[in-house]
Design brief:
814 residues, six-stranded mixed β-sheet, 29 strands, elongated
């Protein structure tokens, strides 16, 4: 079979040639550790080994999957190091490119710091030892000058005019690559060393009582502040939100990616692997996914107590609290969704969740490395292995959440038994028979054009109706470009009653819904089962899970309440469910990574040129069906005896020598044109075994087992008798033998009772082929003798022609 190796390689070449990974995660989760692992030059330097410490990875299947991935990446030479783009370096590129005065290129930064320390929007920033800090920044003036000579604006104008043969273009790309990809991280490290020596405090000023000052490492505060500015306005020192939202920060990431791409092309680097450390706002990821089909967002998460322990080595408790308030705010203003750091929002959009609970010193990041290598292998070759049980169940919960009609947050849940068999699926939504919130328009509520869509309270309560009336007066439907304006009942009710009670929501929680499905439809118990939810359960759902005997809870996004520590961890109880941060592929990535491009069996056949069925058949047949020169027959004696037309017996008596190969079995077949085949039996020797035909139509096949291997020089002889019938008189009037192997002597005999009227006109026919199509009359004569009470017609042929067919033929008496 022809090999299509090149064709298959070309199909996967696009996936292998470029992989872009965005990393997201809270400080201390391990984004920098992941970026460092991805930058490893050689695959063997990863020192990959099976993470035996993970108790959920203890099956033979898990170990085999590890071996498949490891073999593919190692033997297939699929590993290429990633070039890292640091988010902090992109921020620094903006800082360095802002022109200062002629005598001090860094003055734009210090001018901005002066402004920050003024009381703006009720917030007061205090930088400790500020005058000393300014002098330190001025000491880096040469770095600012270096980048102001080659700002990114010039690259942005020319990056798409790709001309690999143009020396000016090649020089431009090489210069900018050296400046922004190679040297910028070094410049950032130098500036960070300076800024890390300083702290700052942010205090919110109020008329009645000021809030307690929040402490920050100044480097962290400054870069996060400027990062938010860039996302908001496109400029590092301007925090006014630009409603046009030009994706300034994301476009700069895109520019860095294009720069690395271009550099690799002009330098004949075949694989582009890029890691962005780190994505801090979900809309950055939205933009990159739209630009690059090879882009995946990886969330790096860790149990909170592990993250806190890591941060303790880096900063004090006050600084940790300040950091958390920026990275993971409890509540954002609506316009801040576009530009503020929002790690929680990034987690919801992540394609792959990576768990980094390893103790780096003890395990050498075994589990972390395994996850990264596994998903890179699947990006290159989708479907190489199958999903885990955990991924499969969480994917179902993830899909289920899109059934939700909630206007705020979509959540899905799945309940399984301890073998991961699905028992119930749920999502947050209104009770069955009621209309989901996203399908109810606020204007229709006032007009009551669809009264069945609204509750009696909504239709009759004066306070609620007054609130709806005021809202409708404020809404200009002409500005909604065809959108309806559905509303959240809880928001309206809690606002005019001045409450914050969750009980007034119309929806069931996803976990609650799944639990109730089992009760409603009479499903089996779920004690000792597992709960999968796209967000960790709240206090109410946690109590239900505890009561029902759930032993493991898998979740993606942690709930901000106290359910984990207050409900699910109680003393030393054996009933405490085990909480597990989800890791794995989810959403569209689940499909793209685990859906094979083609059936793997077909791919291997096309790639190798090996047809498994044919080779297996050929090899098996070769062992039991010798080639023509493998055997040499001393004699072949075949007879067909008519006792009556209803009782016919055929005997085959042979002896041969093995000339080539070795055989334990021989396959033989009988072409029978009569009414029915009864059976065959081995007459001699008794040491052989006969496996009779299982066929129901001609040709009928049997095999002879010698009981041991017969090799070159061995002589074999056996005698077999076959019993057949022709009671309906449909038999073709001939008895023949095909000469497939060299034969010293052939004897054919047809036997009938004396004075019978079964056959007449008996004669010899020789065919010059094995299909009895080319008739060739020879000199052979039929011999007729009578012996006892039988008449025997026989043909004796010494050294019959190879690949000829010899036949005794006749006419049947009517």
């Amino acid at each position: 079979m022809t090999s299509y190796k090149t064709t298959i390689d070309n199909i996967y070449a696009v996936k292998e040639s470029e992989i872009i990974l965005g990393l997201t995660g809270r400080t201390g989760a391990g984004c920098s550790t992941v970026a460092k692992i991805l930058s490893t030059q050689n695959y063997n330097d990863l020192d990959l080994s099976f993470p035996e410490s993970r108790k959920e990875l203890n099956s033979d299947t898990d170990k085999i999957k590890f071996d498949i991935i490891d073999h593919f990446m190692n033997k297939g030479k699929k590993w290429s190091p990633f070039t890292s783009i640091e988010g902090s370096s992109i921020i620094l590129s903006y800082i360095l490119s802002q022109p200062g005065d002629k005598n001090n290129a860094s003055s734009a930064l210090t001018d901005y710091l002066d402004i920050l320390q003024k009381n703006t929007e009720g917030k007061n920033l205090t930088i400790i030892d500020y005058e000393k800090l300014k002098k330190d920044i001025e000491g880096t003036n040469h770095i600012f000058e270096e980048y102001q000579e080659k700002p990114l604006d010039i690259l942005s104008e020319k990056i798409d005019d790709f001309d690999i043969g143009n020396n000016d273009y090649r020089n431009l790309i090489n210069d900018y690559y050296s400046l922004y990809v190679v040297n910028l991280p070094k410049r950032k490290k130098r500036l960070k060393e300076i800024l890390d020596n300083y702290d700052c405090y942010v205090e919110t000023k109020q008329k009645i009582q000021d809030e307690r000052p929040i402490k920050f490492h100044f480097y962290t505060y400054l870069f996060q502040k400027i990062g938010n500015n860039i996302r908001s306005s496109g400029e590092p020192y301007k925090d006014t939100f630009d409603e046009k939202f030009s994706y300034g920060f994301s476009k700069c990431m895109e520019l860095f990616i294009k720069l690395i791409r271009a550099y690799n092309k002009i330098n004949n680097i075949s694989h582009t692997r890029i890691c962005i450390d780190a994505i801090r706002n979900p809309y950055e990821s939205v933009y990159l996914k739209d630009c690059f089909r090879s882009y995946y967002l990886l969330s790096i998460s860790t149990d909170e107590y592990i993250r806190k322990n890591r941060l303790t080595k880096m900063m004090d408790q006050q600084s940790q609290s300040g950091l958390d308030s920026i990275e993971y705010p409890n509540k954002l203003k609506l316009n801040e969704l576009f530009f503020h750091q929002n790690i929680g929002g990034c987690f919801e959009m992540a394609d792959i969740h990576i768990l980094n609970n390893d103790n780096n010193e003890d395990t050498h990041n075994k589990f972390l490395k395994w996850q990264l290598v596994k998903y890179i292998a699947l990006m290159i070759h989708p479907g190489l292995i199958t999903p885990t049980h955990i991924e499969r169940c969480m994917q179902l919960a993830y899909n289920a959440k899109y059934n939700s009609g909630c206007l705020s947050r979509l959540v899905g849940a799945v309940i399984t038994d301890s073998d991961f068999a699905i028992k119930a699926v749920g999502w947050n939504d209104v009770a069955k028979g009621q209309i989901p919130c996203n399908l109810r328009d606020i204007l229709e509520c006032q007009k009551t054009t669809r009264p069945d869509c609204y509750s009696e309270y909504e239709k009759t309560n004066p306070e609620f109706n007054e609130a709806i009336k005021n809202l409708n007066q404020a809404i200009d439907y002409s500005n909604l470009t065809g959108r309806y304006f559905p509303y959240c009942f809880k928001d309206i009710y809690n606002s005019y009653t001045d409450q914050r009670n969750q009980v007034y929501t119309r929806s069931l929680h996803a976990e609650e819904n799944a639990f109730l499905q089992i009760s409603k439809y009479g499903g089996q118990g779920i004690k000792d089962g597992y709960l999968f939810c796209t967000a960790s359960p709240c206090e109410l759902c946690s109590k239900k899970a505890y009561q029902l005997g759930i032993t493991k809870i898998f979740y993606i996004d942690p709930y901000p309440g106290i359910s984990k520590t207050h409900i699910l961890k109680f003393g030393k109880s054996n009933h405490n469910p085990e909480m597990n941060l989800f890791y794995g592929a989810i959403g569209e990535a689940y499909i793209s990574l685990y859906r094979p491009i083609m059936a793997y069996k077909d791919e291997l056949e096309l790639y190798s040129g090996i047809n498994v069925k044919q080779i297996s058949k050929d090899g098996f047949q070769k062992n039991i069906d010798p080639d023509s020169m493998d055997l040499s027959y001393e004699y072949i004696n075949c007879s067909l005896e008519f006792v009556t037309r209803e009782k016919i017996e055929s005997t085959r008596d042979v002896k041969f020598e093995i000339k080539n190969g070795s055989f334990r079995k021989l396959n033989r077949k009988i072409t029978w044109t009569g009414s029915s085949y009864d059976f065959s039996e081995l007459i001699e020797p008794t040491s052989f075994n006969l496996c009779d035909s299982k066929d129901t139509v001609s040709p009928f096949r049997y095999s002879i087992d010698f009981g041991e291997e017969k090799t070159v020089g061995n002589n074999v002889s056996y005698k077999i008798k076959t019993y057949v019938k022709d009671e309906t008189k449909v038999m073709h009037p001939y008895f023949s033998n095909m000469i497939y192997n060299p034969t010293a002597h052939l004897t054919l005999s047809v036997i009938v009772p004396n004075n019978s009227n079964i056959i007449k006109n008996v004669h010899i026919v020789r065919y010059a082929d094995m299909e009895m199509k080319t008739r060739y009359d020879g000199t052979e004569k039929i011999k007729k003798i009578k012996k006892d009470d039988k008449t025997i017609y026989s043909l004796n042929v010494p050294n019959p022609n190879l690949f000829y067919t010899y036949s005794i033929e006749w006419d049947f008496e009517q």
